[in-house]
Amino acid sequence: MVQIDTDYLGDLRCEAEHGPSGVSLTTDAPVDNHGEGRSFSPTDLVATALGTCIATILGIQADEHDLDLEGIEISVEKEMASNPRRITSLRTEVTMPSALDEQTRERLERAAHHCPVDESLHPDVEVRITFHWPDETPTS
After folding, report:
1. Backbone phi, then psi, for 67, in 5-degree steps?
2. Which pTM value belongs to this model?
3. Helix or strand or coil: residue 84?
4. Would you say 73 and 55 are in contact if contact means Cβ atoms under 8 Å apart?
């Protein structure tokens, strides 16, 4: 179990502290929801969690199979809806640093689609993960 402690700072800003490490971060409401957008919004952190979760899962696969995947780039685009205000989609682009054989690519893509954050999101949130391999056509 991990504990995250959050303090409301006022002006729609919060500070959250990661219990085990003591590292903290600040959030702010986005401009389109009464905030000033001075930092990540809470829903931005969901998009961040997906991207970093995918990177971590790919890193674990790399360690287990002696692959050098340093330099993976992941971009997550979050789309919001209103009434109720919620995340509707997280479009993720994964750019791989090197070409790999078909079996390895399939294993990595399968692992990315089953990262714990993806598995934890509500089924109404569309999650699309597209891989870009050097000199190859993107795959989803």
Report:
1. -110, 150
2. 0.91
3. coil
4. no
